[in-house]
Structure formats: structure tokens, C-alpha cells
């Protein structure tokens, strides 16, 4: 990705589906894992999470809800950007479509589920 233009299209993503949210995820080169990006449809809420290894950003595309980061609750509306840094605890709720970006790419050992 460095220094090159890149287009990511839907066929390059993997579909995920849980009771709380669904979406498509793209992970940069499996060897490099420099970033991943997800388009998520939140139906209810995302569990409370502590980030252990990376920075996570959420851009609200449509809908509304709330984000709670380190105990501080904020309204979430279209065009809002939330940045969660390594070590922070967060959760979100509402009916929203979000763009999630993780730098570097996240994985099972990169976060801790708290509820």
C-alpha cells in the first residue's frame, strides 16, 4: 500500500455476521498486516473492549448512537470520527453504519473483551 494507489472493492473483503453487527472486512497483505478496514452495520451494540496493540478509528456513515470511551459517553451521528488508542476501553450502541480502520491490523490477541 505504501506509495501506491489502491482500490478496495467488495469482492476483496470477507463478510462477517454476529447477532450485534455485520459487515465486510479487508486486511492488507497477510504478510504485512499494516491495516484493516471494515464497513459495519451495528444493529444493537458492540461489547466493551480494551485495545491492547493498535489504534482503532470509527467514522459514522449513517444512523445514530453513542460511543463510550474510558467512561465518557458521546453522541454519534453521521460524519463523526471516534479515535480509540491502545489501552483505552470503549463500547458503542445504536443503529449505525460505520467505517472501522485499525492500524496496524487487528486480530484476536489485539483486544480484550470485557463483557
Sequence stretches where pLDDT stays below 50 over 5 or more residues:
none
Number of strands: 9
Helix run count: 0
Biggest β-sheet strands, sense, barrel: 9 strands, antiparallel
Going by helix content, strand content and strand pairing, the class is mainly beta
Backbone CA Rg: 14 Å
Straight-line distance between termini = 35 Å
State which percent range the strand residues make up.
Answer: over 45%
Note the quaternary state here.
single chain
The overall pLDDT, averaged over residues, is 89
- Output the helix-strand order: EEEEEEEEE
Based on Cα principal axes, name the global outline.
globular
Helix share bin = under 10%
Explain the overall architecture.
- With 115 residues, the protein is mainly beta.
- It contains no helices and 9 strands.
- Strands 1, 2, 3, 4, 5, 6, 7, 8 and 9 form a 9-stranded antiparallel sheet that branches.
- It is globular.
- The mean pLDDT is 89.
Write the layout of secondary structure elements.
Layout lengths: L13 E4 L3 E7 L8 E7 L2 E7 L3 E15 L2 E5 L4 E4 L4 E15 L7 E3 L2
Antiparallel strand pairs: 1-2, 2-3, 3-8, 4-8, 4-9, 5-6, 5-7, 5-8
Characterize this entry briefly.
The protein is an all-beta fold.
Kindly list the characteristics that best describe this protein:
115 residues; mainly beta; 9 strands; 58% strand; globular
